[in-house]
Amino acid sequence: MREKKQSEFSLIDEFFAGKSHYHTGTLLGVGDDAAILTVPADRELLVSVDTMVEGVHFFNNGTQYSVDPYSLGHKLLAVNLSDLAAMGGEPLWATLALTIPEYNREWLQQFSAGLFSMAEKFKVDLVGGDTTRGPLTLTLQIYGSAPIGKAVRRSGAKVGDAICVTNSLGTAAYMVQLINESQHNSTLQLADNILIKENLANLERPSPLVAEGVILRDFSSAMVDVSDGLVADLRHICESSRVGAVLDRAAIPVHSALSNIGSVEERLSLALSGGDDYELCFTIAAGKLKLVTEKLAELGCAVSVIGDIVEEDVADGDSVKWRDGSCIDERGFSHF
Amino acid sequence: MREKKQSEFSLIDEFFAGKSHYHTGTLLGVGDDAAILTVPADRELLVSVDTMVEGVHFFNNGTQYSVDPYSLGHKLLAVNLSDLAAMGGEPLWATLALTIPEYNREWLQQFSAGLFSMAEKFKVDLVGGDTTRGPLTLTLQIYGSAPIGKAVRRSGAKVGDAICVTNSLGTAAYMVQLINESQHNSTLQLADNILIKENLANLERPSPLVAEGVILRDFSSAMVDVSDGLVADLRHICESSRVGAVLDRAAIPVHSALSNIGSVEERLSLALSGGDDYELCFTIAAGKLKLVTEKLAELGCAVSVIGDIVEEDVADGDSVKWRDGSCIDERGFSHF
């Protein structure tokens, strides 16, 4: 249970300590038993945690498709920032729990560079962490804030609200499908696939919609990020808000990159189950739609109205349906 | 990369959601994209994270010595509370990142019971988490608070301060040694070992000194918890404070359970490298010693004065020595 190679302390010093300090509330960061932080009295603290496991959430090596460590660092912070965005939060801090099989200087350098590229972009101070030896497992805790009472919960959707989603869906799910197929079919040359080349960044280096979430917290009644699949995530809103949702098939914004792939139903399925898109799904009173659409357009973010919040059908087990009452065929990402 | 068994959401609902709510600042716990928390305006927020990995920090199965999941849940919260105690913090919240190889109802029930037994004892609200599939890896983030400016850093030790440690040291390290030996020697029957029977709880279910830390924040100039070994942890104080430390061999409080084991030097080595004792090591102006010793005694906590803070010897690489200037032979827990 004990061994001595590179010490944890010098590893932290070298790759993670003192690399970001954007907030005056960061009184003490990496390097003590705990970080010391202050949250302004007029703000709520928002916290969320996400883990990425090799072989489950990504492939690191030993397969045709491996994610580079820079992208892993980028994505680990991005997926957590996406959770924060879904509350309308502004980023403050992060802590990192890094379990790695061995000391690999090059890997750590690249991972750290990817992580801090996002930390710089979104003004996140890394204030603590723990590095341990073991199977590659990456856990990041994100901290942010919002004015008191302004964070957007899943539970606020009202009957009559419009259901919206940002930008478009489906590329990340399609990339995952191609990667999975390539694991079992070595003739599939991922590197030569033009779609992969152009769209892999959607899967590997997602852009969390933090600024968009901050705008939406003044307008939306409920919000989630699309991390497990649009229908699965919308279902969380419905269950928390005790409402139902009806969607319009033609309104689902399927990504244009998928336009030549499979059938309409297959493309729709990718968009509805796209577990890694990190778009925002929100509900909003119809009267606010025009203004919020304009404000998001200024950030280059499109909004699609995909359906309406309706009364909960307690007799029926499924809260999300097509408008004609038929069931939606989708598979969200299930962790077990 | 996708599969469907037990869903993450029902697993969280069943074992981790809504089981603790002690703090009015917990506005929204498990079940949204992020938790919503408020920190009183006159308090600093303290945060720390610790990870435990199967096969590195504990053995779960497949070996003669396995830790039961109840103890794992207990220890995961305890080691994090110990970090908080070393700052003088009072516990508020925790989030849990749980990576498990499969859905095992009995394991989860016991792990959850162990975790929440400590959460109840120390009034910790579990406010969020992530459950993923993969090699058993347990990460907990602890949140606490202290009055503004009162958290005890490692950097405040002054020349002339006394160096103290709570209670006694060495049993956890000795248990680890016995367990390691038993992995390579099947004739060693751990279950029959009377020392193991009586002292295994020190290793498996440590008691974090939270109330003691709160008292010490009014008196001590610097503090760490003994998680990596007394000398290794004291060295952190010396490096942060830019001071040296001299220790008195006879003053090291070796646990009485070790009194019949090996040589004096071997017992001392266990006490100095006891990586899992979770006692508190602190520095304090000599004039405050009597009062703090009395106050801790009321909690049943003993204090040993083990040495003094001296000027940093910049010519020498080692900040912690015996009083006669000789080097200390110890091995702290090194993570790599």
CATH topology of the largest domain in chain A: Phosphoribosyl-aminoimidazole Synthetase, Chain A, domain 2
The secondary-structure element order of chain A is HEEEHEHEEEHHHEHEHEHEE
**Helix coverage percent of residues of chain A?**
25-40%
Shape field of chain A: globular
Instruction: Determine the strand fraction of chain A and express it as a percent band.
Output: 15-25%
Under the CATH scheme, the architecture of the largest domain in chain A is Alpha-Beta Complex
CATH class of the largest domain in chain A: Alpha Beta
Output the strand order for the largest sheet of chain A.
8-10-7-11-9-12
Oligomer classification: homodimer
Pick out the low-confidence regions of chain A: 1-6, 332-336
Count of beta strands of chain A: 12
| Largest pleated sheet of chain A | 6 strands, mixed
Name the average pLDDT of chain A. 88
Structural class of chain A: alpha+beta
Radius of gyration of chain A: 21 Å
Number of self-contained structural domains of chain A:
2
